[in-house]
Amino acid sequence: MSTVADPSISALPLPSAEDVPDGVRRLWDRSQEVFGFVPNVFVAQAYNGEQFQAWWSYFNLLVNKEGHLTNAERELLAVVVSGLNRCTYCAVSHGAALRHHSGDPVTADLVAVNWRQADLPDREAALADYAEKLTLTPADVTPEDLAPLRAVGLDDHQILEAVQVIGMFNMTNRISTALAMVPNVEYHAQGRAPGA
Question: Quick check: keyword Oxidoreductase in the entry (predicted)?
Fold first, then answer.
């Protein structure tokens, strides 16, 4: 196992390609092919290769696959939670994804800092409000907090998915923050108009 730390990516050592399971190497190769870079989170967490693959399998299913919420709604939740938790890696990387899926870089940037200033539609505002409460004061969450989500048309499948996405990002934010993960520079330009 490699024992070389790279503080530009993570506070812990980073594995080399020879030190990770085949599935991790394939993910790295596929990322390089599709994105033109390997996300730093894919390298930093792969130090424990099997655990990383288990996390990625659920994360990918929950965030990247066809689901009950739209891609933009899931990324909205990711950015709200990450902004509240002050997780630089996730706020930047999922801010890029929100810009991509929403086509709106201004709103995505506002959501990362203070979603209340983003003038969100009612459905998105209800999701953001619930994400804020579950993130900041989970002990105060009650079943009654689901009523505003139902009032804006969310069904039970969508509510459960929202809860799962919020939970996933609270966990992932803590991992990324604890390891001092730094977002890839490529994320900063994604989803923005050329020259802007």
Answer: yes
